[in-house]
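Annual report, structural modelling task.

Input specification for the S-adenosyl-L-homocysteine complex:
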Amino acid sequence: MERFSIHNEIELKELLAENKIPAFRYGQIENAIYKNFVTKFQDIQTIPKDLRDLLDERCFYQSLSIDHEATSSNGQTTKFLFETQDKLLIEAVLMRHLSGRNTLCISCQAGCPMACTFCATWKLGLQKNLPLYEIVEQVMYAAKMLNWEWERLRNIVFMGMGEPMLNYDVMKEAIHVFTAQKKFDLSNRRVTVSTCGIVPWIEKFTDDFPQTSLAISLHAPNDDIRREIMPVDHTYDINRLMTSLDRYTDKTNKKIFYEYIMINWVNDHLKLADELGKLLQGRLAHVNFIPYNPWEGTSSDGYSTTPRFIIEKFQRTLEKYGVVSTIRATMWDDIDAACWQLARKKKEEEK
Ligand code: SAH
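The model returned the following structure:
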């Protein structure tokens, strides 16, 4: 009989019911797994031996194996390259901020179908949607590591591999696991879903998750340039995108995080700063500039990172329109590649 993940609450509750085990045992198992970070069912002291044996027989704790793990020399960033049972590579990145805002960037798909030109996941195409347990296990692994450091995980961002809106139902369940008081117990606004802008799903998200934070990979203020680097813009142009985002802010009164990757000579002409300012003026917006992270074997030959002083000029221009922005720190330089790059690099090495 095939075993199922300990994170699968419904199946686990069914298993207990079938075996006439009182329902309160579920709470004890949940407490051991999510609060005490117990990794072996035999170590769950609060439940009887026959139940521990049953869990061993019918459930698994972890399906992902660690293919590669690296921590930056300043200790702030740890990258994980996981391998799934079906031999696909997925990544997560843990960022330890000095303020204690420990943030984990997770993957929701192996590969990605969206084909943004600057992104290293591009060439992989979509390999598969991750099931719930593969998403939760990324979080469990990092949360356990932080617990060992006497720290806590504070934020989760869906900014690793994949497009979360295309694995919507699983993402929905995952957010439940992250925010449930008896599980990871994060507040909803500390979970951020980042999307390239798939309008119908943004609308559904607005209705389902008015408390959860939303980030939009905008990367250009007009369709001409956005289309060159993000094919999704052919289907959902900026106008339609902004209409759906206005509905989100009207309904939630929450600001949206706009990601803007800075690629030299592509989307960093200073007139675009003006356009961006005009687009976001008066909207609940926070812009996050991401210096383009070059990766080997780029599909986008010739892309390079915008110099810092240009990014700062962009910032000052936005200020004139009352739009607040930050420049993302590249904390991971010395461990090579950003969160969407490790799997690719590994694949290249294997060739
Ligand atoms: N599909 C989702 C989430 C994954 S991408 C989305 O599009 O938002 C997470 C973020 O990393 C996006 O803002 C993406 O545009 C950015 N990104 C991808 N490749 C990058 C690179 N080479 N350098 C810098 N940022 C990159």
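DSSP finds twelve helices and 14 strands in the chain.
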